[in-house]
Amino acid sequence: MLTTRLRTLPDFTSLGAMNGQNIPSAGTGLPAERRSWVLQRLAESGVVRTQDVADGLGVSVETVRRDLAVLESEGMLERVHGGAASVGRRQVSEPAYGIRAQQGSAEKQAIGVVAASLVKTDYTVFIDIGTTALEVVRALPQDFQGRVVTYSLPIAQEVSSRFAAEVLLGGGRLRPGDLATSGRQTLDLFADIRADLALLSCGGASAEAGVTDFHLGEVDAKRLMIKNSARRYLLADSSKFGQFAPYHVADWGSFTGMVSDRPPTGVLAEALRSAGVETVTR
Question: Contact 12/83 with Cβ under 8 angstroms?
Answer without folding.
Answer: no
